[in-house]
Amino acid sequence: TLFAEEASDEHIRLWEFNCKVHDRGKELLVPGRKCSEIAAELNEMYAAENLLQYRSFGYGHSFGVLCHYYGREAGLELREDCETVLEPGMVVSMEPMITIPEGLPGAGGYREHDILVIEEGGNRNITGFPYGPEHLIVKGKARAA
Fold first, then answer.
1. Minimal CA–CA distance to 1: which of 105, 134, 93, 141?
2. How far is the CA of 130 from the CAs of 50, 52, 94, in angstroms?
3. What are the CA-CA distances from residue 57 to residues 5, 15, 110 (Å)?
4. Other Cβ atoms closer than 10 A to 104
5. Does residue 75 contact residue 115 with C-beta atoms inside 8 Å?
6. CB 115 within 8 A of CB 60
């Protein structure tokens, strides 16, 4: 998620909430967790804020750990219908997204994204890119004439 110049209070509220879902999702990416359980918990967060209907796809996916072609694999999607259990060595994204339709307060898309390596007892975030309103509201600079 990125804004240019400014964002309304509702934009900030939705963005910060999506960051909260993102943070919780990263906490859930640990060995022994089932993909479907992770999706269900994050769905509950969106539902509690009446935002679930604006979620457009799953919460993340693998990066080539289950087969030879080293791409995204259906066997490891953070969706309600995926029963894969996370194991050390898997590489998974966390990328919750909501899209608020035009005409509604806070209209726009909100998506945070990190890539994590599942390790014994937790995970390691290999993205390291800042996110959220405190980092990604780009302000223009006045130029001298």
1. 134
2. 27, 25, 14
3. 28, 17, 12
4. 11
5. no
6. no
Please check whether residue 89 is in contact with residue 66, taking contact to mean a CB–CB distance below 8 angstroms: no
The model's pLDDT over 54-107, given as tens digits with 9 standing for 90+, comes to 998 889 988 765 554 555 566 788 999 999 999 999 889 999 999 999 999 999
User: Distance between CA 74 and CA 90 in Å, rounded?
Assistant: 14
Tokens of 96: 């919750």
**N residues, the chain:** 145
Amino acid at 120: E
3-state secondary structure of 34: strand
Tokens read off for 110: 């909100």
Q: State the Cα–Cα distance between residues 74 and 29, nearest whole angstrom.
A: 17
Distance of CA 112 to the CA centre of its chain: 5
